[in-house]
Amino acid sequence: SSHLVMPEDGYEWKKYGQKFIKNIQKIRSYFRCRHKLCGAKKKVEWHPSDPGGDLRVVYEGAHQHGSPASSSSAAAETGGAASNRYELGAQYFGGGAGARSQ
DNA sequence: AGCCTTTGACCAGCG
DNA sequence: TCGCTGGTCAAAGGC
């Protein structure tokens, strides 16, 4: 019943894995952009006991396509299709409560 | 019937 | 070299 409410960024993602990261004691879900030529990825991690209290979304890479399906462009990209910066220092977001980083 | 989520297994990098 | 942790794949189930 308890379905995790992750912040909708407007893009369409396909979940391809989920693991419990022992290092930080949190569950991490792996998503990939559904667009064919898009290598953008997304990782969502939360504390097993406080999903909404410690939610964390990590975006990796830039989308090779334009506007998302929805209108809300919450996911501010750096450069868009022009620059393809696949770096470790991706964008970290916090869902509502634990919003911080960058 | 099709799409997406789920869960375990498999694989790779590092100590 | 082995073991551990983290990342991805793939098949099954659910909606």
TrEMBL record:
UniProt protein name: WRKY domain-containing protein
Subcellular location: Nucleus
Alphabetically ordered keywords of this record: DNA-binding, Nucleus, Transcription, Transcription regulation
GO molecular function annotations of the record: DNA-binding transcription factor activity; sequence-specific DNA binding
Recorded GO CC terms: nucleus
Residue ranges constituting the WRKY domain according to the UniProt record: 2-68
Chief localization: nucleus
Source organism superkingdom: Eukaryota
